[in-house]
Each structure stands twice: as C-alpha cells, then as structure tokens.
Amino acid sequence: MGTLVRLVIHAADSSAMAPAFARIRELDQELSDYKPDSELNQVCRTAHDRPVRVSGDLFRVLEAAQKIAGESDGAFDVTIGPVTHLWRQGRMPDPETLHRCGWRNLVLRDHTVLLKLPGMQLDLGGIAKGYAADEALATLRARGIKSALVAVGGDIAIGDAPPGQQGWRIGIDPVGGELLLHNAAVSTSGDTEQFREIGGVRYSHIIDPKTGRGITSRIAVTVVARRGLEADPIATAISVLGEERGRALFGRRVRSLLVSQNR
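Below the sequence we write its predicted structure tokens.
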C-alpha cells in the first residue's frame, strides 16, 4: 500500500508477528493500487463491462468507503484514482479525467462490483491502511496477544494497554500533544510529508473530489475511533470538509477529534 508497517507486542516471544505481517501482505495484494496485479486493479480493468465478484476484504472496504462517501456528500471518494495517479506525477486533472470519477458511479451488490464508466480507477489509500491495521491486530488477538500496537503508515490500531500501564502513548504530531489509548484506532491526515508545490501553490496529497485538486488549507486532522476502517476515511473526509462541517457530520461518530490549521 505504499507505506511502512510496524508491530509492537507484549508477549513471551515474537512468533505471533509473522501471521500478522502475512495478513497485511494478503491485504496489500487485494487492496493496493500500486500493484498492477492486485485484486483491486484487476477489478478496475474488468468491472465496467459487467459486475465482478470480489473477495470479502475488498467488498467490506468498498462498502465502508461508500458509506462515508454518502455521509460526507462525496468528500471521501475512492473513485478519485484517475486524479491521484496524475497527482503522483505532479499533474493537474483535465475535465476528461474528472469525468471518470464520482462515488455514485461505483455500484456494490451481493459481493460484486460494477463501475459505470470505462477508465474508472479506485484508490483505497484513504481507507485500506486503517483496515489493514485492524486486521493485523485481530490476527494477533486470535493468537492470544492482547497488548499490541499496529501502525500502517499514519494509521494505528491499538489493543489492551501494556502491562502496568493505563494505555499506549501515541504522539499526534503535527497536531501536537499525546494521547493515552487502549482498544482504539487512530488516524492522522495532513500534508506534513506528502504535498506538491505547483505554480507557487502548496497542494496536499489529500484531494478534494469536487475540484480534483489537492487541498490547500494546511489542515491536520487526528481521529480516534473504534476501528481504523472508520478513523482512516473520516480523517480524510474532515480534511476536505474543514473542521466546522466535519465536526457536525462526524463528531458524534468518533471518540476524539483533533484539528489544527495554518501550521
């Protein structure tokens, strides 16, 4: 998924780590848009002609993505793939590229996927890492490891507190400060590390689906929720929506929401 993974566990030995990393490798093969032969990219090449049956993981992630897309009026949109591919090259989208996007053009039914328009490309970068952290933590728990932390890029899933502690201490730079958490998920969205300057303007890697351009508000959003599958896309959506509207839509759905701007 184009990022690094870190596991921390409290256990007698490290044997449970291998299955957790294997689970993330499995999800990388299913959900990554960086791998030409991933399940996601195979679906993007074939699902515009007819509905294509997909794995449980891919369908589960797409269902969660479409739910957040509807709740945010499209501020979170996994069909923005054609635009993100241009962004990686430092190019702005043209009208034809934008025409191949739009969350309402993604149809999910009975574990199948249909893309209404040819040339659509799905990008799960704003949700797959949170789900992968959830699943790696679940894999560790299934092997008796209750106190663990899984970090997939900026998305973290946390189990029970370390022995003798009240929780895991999670730094929330660039928002600043520290959180003490257990049995939760944390996602941070911002442009501290991923941005481009084009024509003297700093554009975030977080794209506003309505304009096809990276946001310029210099916002950093940290969301604490029950699962990474929720925290990851909600953090992205609020980055696009802004703090006021984001709190109005999602404030009651998350455990904690921290926002800073003009860093």
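Helices lie at 17-31, 39-46, 56-71, 81-87, 95-99, 128-142, 228-241, 243-250.
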